[in-house]
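Appendix B, record 7
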Amino acid sequence: MRSPVLPLTWHLAHRSGRRGLQSQLIAAATAAVGALVLLIMLAAAFGSGSRAERTSWRAPHAAPAGQATAVQAMTTTFVRHQPLTVVNLAQLPGRSPTPAPPGLRGFPKKGEVYLSPALAELVHRLPGGQLAARFPKPASYGTIGAAGLASPDELVAVIGRAPTDPTVSKAAEDGDIFDTGLTERATVAGFTGSRPSQLTSSDQRTVLLGAVLLVIPVLVLVSAAGRLGAAQREQRLAALRLAGATPSQIIAMTAVEATAVGAAGALTGALAYGLLVPALAQVPYGIGGWYTGDLWVGLPWLLTVVATVTALLTVSAISMLRQVASSPLGVAQQATPRRTRMIRLVLFAAALCWILVTTQAGDSLTTRQLVALLIVFYSAYWMFGPWVVDRLGRIAGRLARRPATLLAARRLSDDPRGAWRTVSGLVLAGFVAGFFSVGATAFDTSGHEDQVAIATADTTSARHAAETARALLRQAGVTARVSVSGENSDNLLFGTPGVIAEVPGGPERLDATVTALAPAANGAYPLTQDYLSAQDIVVVDRITSVSTATLGLSFFVAASSAGLTAAASVLDRRRIYGLLRLAGTPLKVLDRARTRETAIPLVVLAGGTIAAGVYGAYQLNKLVGASFNTSGAIELAVCTAVGALVMFAAIGGSRPLLRRVTADREQNAE
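Structure tokens (predicted):
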């Protein structure tokens, strides 16, 4: 016998009218937002890893003495405060030909210079004395392809040298104290590097940190989509249950409907992601923008996200059927109160105590343990939220002095889970705001930005180098104060022997000084504050970029959750609103009640997650040895205010829907 589930499901969905269609569209839109954000996070995580892998060839992987065919010397200089990676290559005489580096058609011959497209544009735009003179002057420049670059905006040069050239014979041979991992030298047989460039090595880890902080709120949003329109669905299924439908049949009907809605929404989000990939590639991160291919997650991952969102929405919808299966008459009469139990408070307190005790381990915590703690915190807060909302509703009901407050209190205590879903996005986003705003790591990267230095073996060598430096600067037309370092430690070399050139006046004069002094730097490039602070600058820049993106996406998810949930709530309570309007309740009072039922739990719960985020940032800073960013308190206050405004604006967006569903009072009251 043919199952009646599919025909009946289609008939009920088709006959549910505009109200049912609106609920389904809202649920599909929520699923689309969730799928879109998940795909963006995956794209950033995979893309940053792919970018880092393409820089690993520059870190020389030493070959055995008898197998080496070339010398590779990688160093880093800066122009306009941007890192410029220079790879010097020399073929060893009498050895077999060395394969071409990634992005080049062949191994560079002596005097050949290959530039990345961004560097080539910069070389032609800047005066030669500020950049081009740092390289040999070839008849024409070659171009480095995408296979050898992490980003279209990356500055990279590959130069062919003779084996006796100081840039490959002397570079990084002493491993002095100023080597921060940006300069390396080795004899090689190919370009299979073992690790990415220091400029990209932390990119993926930082992205994963932001993704972990954001993934739970996104999954919560998707889960909430399965509960949108639950009141109407419960009434319909309770009637079928009373008419003789079995629990398995109503579960199957709900699963079919939720799967169709979830799949439609998730596929829409996936389509939006595909259309947005070219625009997302223009968003700078770290060393610059992205190649479009880096942000494409691939069809398997795309389908996995669609399936995950669909499954989560379906499971969430089915989980709401317990009362329909066990007490359909109570659901039909709307007589079943949705109270929460004290066990939620007990479990939350236990989880919080475990987190506090575990974090006392400090430096012994691993990354996986920190992620586990974060998941436990999110789960505990998600479980604890409805209990707090329920109690707040009861307290507000006792203290209410105005009709709007009394209506809001009744809503909170009657359906604490539904009220919690409206504010959960911003409440969980509060943790992200507290973590990144106040807890952004802060390193002292200030120092001697107007100095250019050349390290030497001793003071005698420094004096000779100083005379050479003065002559080179005069020849280049650069005015600078040249001194010998050794006695005074308040300089770029920290008092070690060398030459210091002070050139106040901006990045143009600094770049011109670096270019002019390059011949005196013993095969390397002169040192600047950018070079010495590169490690700290990379960390601060990546955390700042990820924090901004994570905060933006968090508020986007929170606003979407609040707006869509508020709209669905209006549709679910259409009959109640109609009865209240027939009783003479002004529309203004109903709208104020909706606002207050959001504001009351938001103030209490968001404050708790913000405090937890600050505590988590404190633990992270202690782990990495960074100072606490107290100035971020202002940023945190701004984020909190903006988040609340966005939340109420999203809820206010459903005001026309409230006006429309209460317009026909007689029909709504039926």
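Remarks on this record: The mean pLDDT is 79. The beta strands are 70-79, 82-91, 113-115, 142-143, 155-160, 184-188, 451-455, 481-485, 498-502.
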